[in-house]
User: What shape does this take?
Amino acid sequence: MSVPRDPGVTGRRQFLAALGVATLSLPARAGAQRRTPLPRIGFVSVGRTATPRTRRGRRARAGITDREIAVRREAVFRLLEAVEVVEPTRPVLARAA
Assistant: This one.
């Protein structure tokens, strides 16, 4: 003696089977790859992040005074003022090579 099936269960099974077939028949799309790369912001640091507190500690251990730091900063600013920015055109690159 067989047990009569509920028409709702049979209809649900047929619907899920049809849904599975329809899903598998659709063309697969590679959505994991981006066509344009995402912009990168920031940097990766291998060591610890330098905070004002750690910088002061390093300077104290190295014996660098505030006056020496000011002199070094001034020297860096002078060098940056003397740098000439040049557009990298073919003649410039040929001359640099």
User: Anything to note?
Assistant: The helical segments are 7-25, 52-62, 66-82, 90-96.
